[in-house]
Amino acid sequence: MRLVAAAAMLAAVVWRLGTGPFVDGVRAVDGRALLAAAAIGLLTTVCCAWRWTIVARGLGVHLSLPAAVAAYYRSVFLNLTLPGGVVGDVHRGVSHGRDVQDVGGGLRAVAWERTAGQGVQALLTIAVLLVLPSPVRSSMPLVVVALAATAALVVVVDRSRAWRGRSRLTRVRNAVAADIRAGLLHKKALPAIVLASTVVVLGHAVTFLVAARATGVSAPVSTLLPLVLLAMLAMVLPSIAGWGPREGATAWVFAAAGLGAHLGATTAVTYGVLVLVASLPGAVVLVAKWFPRLRVSSFTERGAADA
Question: pLDDT band at 140, cuts 50/70/90?
């Protein structure tokens, strides 16, 4: 159903705007934009991999930075080429877990690493939307109040007597709390996670701005940045290889800001092409991992035939 929803959103963009934004978005890509996207992609991937190693270390799972960078590139490439947008992360967690003989720990490290990144992204987005003008600025005080009330409710529920005892729910809660304390909130981990996540969010935002400039958007950065961050929030939703929510959200926020839905969708398409090209080192990693296995498999089959 989530993939159907993403497909429906993509179909709605095509129905309202036609195929023009997709054609124009691809045509807007040039060498300078590709080079900038590749450089920014390298920086954000290294920061994501660094964040992953920090969280994994806190959970007691060994992970070196070079291995993390290679695996993260592969993960991003799979996320951008396969339905759902999370297949690469699942593959990353399972592969790392098998390497260290702890699949559960590997998956938990990936889950908390992604959660930390999205949490920092949400906070940065709220901060920018509170300061700079945007189509949702009038609603931001209500959003802040709702978040504060939710946080207070979580604290109250967490400290209630309902969590006492040895029920399965209590054990799950204790395990989650232990992971958060060790992997995210540790005094040596939290500053690094926040720093890495901030660089990642800013890097993706700059890539979006590069895409906007490539498509001919001349609005100042102070106008574009809130729109870009709103569009990036939609990118955490299930998608079809990255397509769907991104184009729909960008078309909406650009139209609400008076820049035009067509230009918004075109910018989103250009961004999609840029990040896909920037993720191509992940395809190299994927092939490099497969090639030795294919050779071993071929050698084994040949030996069996000879026997």
Answer: confident
Q: What is the pLDDT of residues 143-187, one digit of tens each?
A: 888 888 888 887 776 666 555 656 677 778 788 888 888 888 888
300 occurs within a structural domain: no
Complete DSSP assignment for 74-108: HHHHHHHHSBTS-HHHHHHHHHHHHHTT-HHHHHH
Tell me if 302 is assigned to some domain: no
Domain around 60? 2-292
CA-based angle 245:195:275, to the nearest 5? 35
Q: Does the structure show a pLDDT above 80 at 250?
A: yes
Domain annotation covers residue 304 = no
**Angle at the Cα of 79 from the Cα atoms of 73 and 82, rounded to 5 degrees:** 130
**Nearest Cα to Cα of residue 60 among 35, 97, 94, 114:** 97
**Number of domains within the chain:** 1
Residues 140 and 190: their CA atoms lie apart, in Å, by 26
35 alpha-carbon distance from chain centroid? 21
Tokens of 305: 């035939």
Residue 307 domain-assigned?
no
Q: From CA 274, how far away is CA 173, in angstroms rounded?
A: 40
> To 10 degrees, the CA torsion angle through 187, 193, 199, 201?
-130
